[in-house]
Amino acid sequence: LRDRGYNVVIGKLAEDPAILVRVRQARAVVTNAGDHANATCTLVVREMGFAGPLYALANDPLYRSPMIRIGATDVFTPAHVLGAALASRASVRISPPAEGMHLLGTMAGMAEFRVRAGSPLAGQRLGDLHLREQHGVSVIGQWRGGNFTTTKGPDTRVEPGAILVVVGAHANLEVVERMAMPIRRTGPIIVAGFGAVGHKVIELLHDARESCVVIDRDYAPGVDVVGNVLEQATLDRAGVREASAVILALSDDSESVFATAA
Predict the structure, then answer these.
(1) For residue 153, what are the contacts with CB-CB under 8 A and spacing of at least 6?
(2) Cα separations in angstroms, 47 against 44, 50, 70, 249
(3) Radius of gyration (C-alpha) of the chain in whole angstroms
(4) pTM (2 decimals)?
């Protein structure tokens, strides 16, 4: 917020109650502590006469309704927001990369290709590649760093490592596929980790009628493969090679790095 030019006051209410002395003049309040501390802060802020928007975070979704009743404008559960973001990136049924993609008929299709550094597409302008004229396909956009941007015309440059989203006849897509690296979109989605984030991911994927396989160290209802995601045997039992996507909803950063390598 400060990078964008906003005046921000930050502090810990338990250590410095004076942090709220001018809260009535604030544009908004965000409570970003534990669930109980956020509830206390919400009550104190409202008792001090602040009538503007108050946004609270909650680790447990059960707190959402009570927090709103005591004065929060809205309550966000970070684990669920993260789970939704992961699920939408893994499933084109949840979040098609472009409006109307789900309406494509049997004569045309959509495919995603990762552009290798050595690909003839890498670093080239779309206008110079003539993909539509020579191969009958259209590039509608590309994924870079988790962000999807639509094509801006012939001057759009194909970035090495990016994932191109291409539309065209199936036979034509196969030709372009050989120029890049195809992204598999058949097979189940594998979710490793069945904590708060993993639960939300699976809930959203099941609502979208995606086929899923859940890996976790401990057995629980909903876990399909019990084992360590770092072990090859566990990955084989889950069928990683046949998966359309793998989501690592693990709580440990180092384990996520090693699991990605595995």
Answers:
(1) 126, 127
(2) 5, 7, 10, 39
(3) 23
(4) 0.59
Q: Could you tell me if 182 and 113 are in contact, meaning their C-beta atoms sit under 8 angstroms apart?
A: yes
- Output DSSP code: residue 100: T
What is the three-class DSSP state of 113? strand
Among 75, 25, 11, 70, which Cα is nearest to 44's?
A: 70
CA atoms of 161 and 205, how far apart (whole Å): 27
CA distance 257 to 190: 16
Task: Write the pLDDT tens digit of every residue in 1-45.
Answer: 999 999 999 999 888 888 899 999 999 999 999 899 999 999 999
258 pLDDT higher than 90: yes
Range 17-21 contact pairs with CB under 8 angstroms and sequence separation of 24 or more: 17/44, 20/44, 20/45, 20/48
Residue of 111, 92, 123 lying closest to 175 (CA atoms): 111
Q: Which helix (H) or strand (E) holds 169?
A: strand 163-169
- Residue 22: closest CA among 43, 53, 41, 45: 45
Place of tokens 């160290």: 217
248: helix, strand or coil: strand
Segment 180-203, tens digit of pLDDT = 665 666 899 999 999 989 999 999
Two tokens, residue 99: 């409006």
